[in-house]
């Protein structure tokens, strides 16, 4: 329970606007997905109060963008340090509201902090440009300026890191920030708000609005004229809707949407490494990540030996309460379990074979391997978002690349091979924003995270991550 936290002041129960906790008469329950027990109640913001956050951010925007890069860097460092000092509590809170194993929750908090640290450094490197002019009487100077107030909506699968990836970049660039976390996991976001307060980040620079009326809150955040930029991580369906809404005021938009990652094992792959990589790419967060392997293509000639190694490794994973020694937590809720069950049942009725089925608690989904899958199955064209590995086979390199690209998504892709020609050939042809080559875990603060096609646009992390929050401004000096 929440009583296990060392510092209970990290448990906050209402929206954080302009440095204050905003009460409301209505509340909603935050539930532990492992046993469905109510952890606490959180004030449900009245959508008409969301504008208060916009006004607060707008009022401090000019002062924030006029701080020096070094000052913003210092604020971010303090925030990162406080998150580090409270790592155990933050991880516990995350497991309690989200369900992932505690070791993974610790990993997420560290990963989340790494973005704050990264952008605390990048803040100082917003370089401009000079260009040779076409006339000697002119000089061209290019500078970069913050876009202005940024609003974001984030999902429940990474309640900490999906916020820091956006917020740290925005704050570093000089943008004030408002986030609506998922109503399923508001506590991690509110704990981060408390620590932003302790870090001395000025009131109104970082705001969190929590509530169950996502549609109405989203409407304010995507249409308010005082918001310059909108950034979203979540499903493609909701992302399309929000992009449309943001068009009404021509906001800058970043979209990190769904994925349908292929994971290809060629006949020359290191099978042991590939199986280890697949366990990580498929089963992290019980399969609930947008970069999870969704379609596993095995060269026909290595199918049997690979499946043996992979199944052996999968048998070692225990499903259960994230606070205990398990590697797979529950799924986020009943709807998520029902969705995965339906995909699996339909695949079996369409000819897939149940190769392995693990054990699971009532709120978890058993680790599953399905063989004989085909691209036309529903399970191959949808994000599974659960611990189900779907196996396809291939005999021809060109054919498997074509199949891997046969999806409307384009976020992550993975493949294993020891042949440099094949590696370059395949990497160049896969239509995805990120490619793991002999690697199953690819996301880190130094690298640009993002997708192509209907997986969205914009990049988070790396020096590209600041671009999403900066405008290019061209100065033309004449009559020199
Ligand atoms: P997921 O599959 O991760 O739940 P969603 O896209 O449903 O993906 O949710 C991601 C975020 O989008 C959550 O914070 C959720 O509250 C929010 N959301 C869902 N529907 C809407 C909507 N119609 N307008 C604005 N935000 C929404």
Automatic annotation (TrEMBL):
Residues 21-474 form the Aldehyde dehydrogenase domain. This is Succinate-semialdehyde dehydrogenase. It is an enzyme of class 1 (oxidoreductase). Belongs to the aldehyde dehydrogenase family. The active site is at residue 256. It comes from the Bacteria. Transmembrane segments: none annotated. Coiled coil: none annotated. InterPro entries: Ald_DH/histidinol_DH, Ald_DH_C, Ald_DH_CS_CYS, Ald_DH_CS_GLU, Ald_DH_N, Aldehyde_DH_dom, Aldehyde_DH_Superfamily. One of its GO terms (biological process) is gamma-aminobutyric acid catabolic process. One of its GO terms (molecular function) is succinate-semialdehyde dehydrogenase (NAD+) activity. Its EC number is 1.2.1.16. Keywords: Oxidoreductase. The gene is gabD. CDD domains: ALDH_F5_SSADH_GabD (cd07103).
